[in-house]
RNA sequence: GGAGAGGUGGCAGAGUGGCCGAAUGCACCGCACUCGAAAUGCGGCAUGGGGGUGACUCCAUCGGGGGUUCGAAUCCCUCCCUCUCCGCCA
């Protein structure tokens, strides 16, 4: 959400940066035109209100002096304002709404050095601030080698028994899955494993948030008003609640309408939750297997920082997500999303793409985004600088970041495909074995 | 689900139609006192918006929205939220 004043003062920069985004968006002249009308009506309204307030005060004084004749005369004078003011107020409300609606559908401006592009094929591999392809290669697991043709996750022996799409369809339709037995346990183990890493090693506070959220929360994290069709809603009397598409929504909105102190920043929250997405618009894509489901588990990280701290926090958060894949020995790459692929609220996004040997390709398993003050403005989340000197122009907004650490369902896929054996069993990565009751392999006894 | 109470500035807490954008206390900031600190004294201290080069000035905001009134923190309606008791329930 943009500050119209900022657009007024930075019209060229705004238009230039916005034009890098995929899609058509309002130009600064159009927005400033609305704002001009808004300010004009405000000026007129203020004048009328000032007059009314002054006259009302005089009426009070006249009545106190028992001068009823004077009071009556003043009341007659103020009577005409009774028509002007409500009309002006209605007009102001309309133009405020118009401006708000126009601003609410504008995506965030990306950083200057975000790669230009039209779709995911223009994303650029990222090797870290000081990294290279070589430093990164030595730091990560390599692609596994197979003496047989690796299968896709749903064809791996153990998954054929523990992953049932037809049963799920009977109950809930397409894009759902029933996990059973060792596969279900593996899913659970992965979630616990990831959450423990972030809370015990990375300083995130574990949170169990509501999974049903209000429209205001969705507005704060940009799902509304533009992406309503991606959501599931639960009816509740007159109102409605949305099933969270990601824990980013409740975790980030923890600081909605809050005034934090600089000393308590950064705040770091992590949660393991189911996520619900309608996947409208992706009909026919990834229909086999559990890559793209209406419901999936995900560990989400959210950081709330000062403006000065957000860039470093972004790199740090990326490292937190990478740590999961490193510990699991999964091969992956990091992509710096181009302007055509980056999400609505982000100034920069790193995607972690894990190697899936069964598909012979990389697939997104985590997305780590820095949003600047974009969401903070929508949520009205500010902080009080510790300098304590009076801040000109109001309190500053916090910066928000979010990242998956990681998608549990997709990580399950990655483990199944990368650790599959020729006999259909799946080896359990060492780091995960404590979470599997010490098992070193599943599906081996069939 | 039934009955009741309540939402006021960073916090606590007064305020039932004009003298209230709001007492008082705490916290915070500045100054004085002090070698320094504490204590004490004095002063400052909500947010958003409009106009003005500026000193400044005006408007709005007492949970959100609407209404009554010349005038609303205060009266009415409605929504949201919190708390207490009863009922039901995991």
Automatic annotation (TrEMBL):
What is this protein's record name? Serine--tRNA ligase
What's its job? Catalyzes the attachment of serine to tRNA(Ser). Is also able to aminoacylate tRNA(Sec) with serine, to form the misacylated tRNA L-seryl-tRNA(Sec), which will be further converted into selenocysteinyl-tRNA(Sec).
**Is-annotated flag, keyword ATP-binding?**
yes
Localization = Cytoplasm
Q: Which GO terms fall under molecular function for this chain's record?
A: serine-tRNA ligase activity
Which family does this protein fall into? Belongs to the class-II aminoacyl-tRNA synthetase family. Type-1 seryl-tRNA synthetase subfamily.
Q: Which residues form the Aminoacyl-transfer RNA synthetases class-II family profile domain?
A: 185-429
EC top class, in one word?
A: ligase
Stretches of the chain forming a coiled coil according to its record = 38-98
């Amino acid at each position: 959400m943009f500050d119209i004043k900022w657009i007024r003062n930075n019209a060229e920069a705004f238009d230039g940066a916005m034009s890098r985004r995929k899609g058509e968006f309002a130009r600064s002249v159009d927005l400033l035109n609305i704002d001009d009308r808004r300010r004009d009506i405000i000026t007129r309204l203020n004048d009328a209100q000032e007059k009314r307030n002054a006259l009302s005060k005089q009426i009070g004084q006249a009545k106190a002096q028992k001068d009823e004749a004077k009071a009556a005369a003043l009341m007659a004078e103020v009577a005409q304002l009774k028509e002007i003011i409500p009309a002006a107020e209605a007009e102001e409300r309309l133009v405020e709404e118009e401006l708000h609606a126009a601003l609410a559908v504008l995506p965030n401006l990306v950083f200057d050095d975000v790669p230009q592009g039209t779709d995911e094929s223009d994303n650029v591999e990222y090797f870290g601030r000081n990294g290279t392809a070589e430093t990164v290669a030595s730091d990560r697991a390599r692609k596994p080698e197979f003496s047989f043709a690796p299968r896709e996750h749903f064809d791996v022996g153990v998954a054929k028994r523990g992953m049932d799409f037809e049963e799920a369809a009977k109950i809930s339709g397409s894009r759902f899955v029933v996990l059973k037995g060792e596969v279900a346990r593996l899913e659970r183990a992965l979630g616990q494993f990831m959450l423990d890493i972030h809370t015990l090693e990375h300083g995130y506070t574990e949170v169990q948030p509501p999974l049903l959220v209000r429209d205001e929360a969705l507005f704060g994290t940009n799902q509304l008003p533009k992406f309503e069709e991606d959501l599931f809603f639960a009816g509740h009397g007159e109102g409605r609640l949305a099933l969270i598409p990601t824990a980013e929504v409740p975790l980030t909105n923890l600081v909605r309408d809050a005034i934090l102190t600089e000393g308590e920043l950064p705040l770091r929250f992590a949660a393991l939750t189911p996520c619900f997405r309608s996947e409208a618009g992706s009909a026919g894509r990834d229909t086999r297997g559990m890559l793209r489901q209406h419901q999936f588990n995900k560990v989400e990280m959210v950081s709330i920082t000062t403006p000065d701290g957000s860039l470093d926090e972004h790199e740090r958060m990326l490292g937190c997500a990478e740590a999961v894949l490193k510990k699991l020995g999964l091969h992956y790459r990091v992509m710096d999303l181009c302007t055509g692929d980056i999400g609505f609220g982000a100034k920069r996004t790193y995607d972690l793409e894990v190697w899936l040997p069964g598909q012979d390709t990389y697939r997104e398993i985590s997305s780590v985004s820095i949003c600047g003050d974009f969401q903070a403005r929508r949520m009205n989340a500010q902080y009080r600088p510790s300098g304590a000197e009076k801040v000109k122009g109001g309190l500053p907004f916090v910066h928000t970041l979010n990242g998956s650490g990681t998608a549990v369902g997709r990580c399950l896929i990655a483990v199944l495909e990368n650790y599959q054996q020729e006999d259909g069993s799946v080896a359990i990565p060492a780091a995960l074995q404590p979470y599997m009751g010490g098992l070193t392999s599943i599906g081996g006894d069939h």
